[in-house]
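Per reviewer request, we include the raw input and output of the structure prediction for the construct analysed in the revised manuscript.
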Amino acid sequence: MGTFGTGPFSSDGALDFLDEVAERAPDQRATALGRWFAHVLAHPDGLWRDYFPDEVVAAAGLVVGALPGGGYLRDTAFASYEEARAAALPGPAPGLVGPARQALLTVAGPGGDWLQGWKDEDTRAEAQATADALLAVLDAPVGGTPDPHRRR
């Protein structure tokens, strides 16, 4: 039985995804993630076959962790998961913000698969909080901090 948690890197699938990213040289990770996001966005029918919701959340977490507003993630999730530190982007990747946001919304927007199947409402709310925190940084002006008034 695998581990599946509500944090951006707290599932076996997310950790496996991070291991794949970490195999690339740091200066190649943003390009690889860009291609991966493009595939996710071009092939929504590939969900559960080519990619999984927890991988999309982890990929968005990598992008957020490299942004100035992602300090909370660096202090918590990156500190807790060696795989996340090993896969970290070497710096902000502004070109990935839009694709990461779009991909995250496909799995963690209203009715998204990331929010389905949790054992209870409290756990589902934790998963929603993870998605909301990532989206807040992705919605912020690049280099800025999240704007709590911006609508999705």
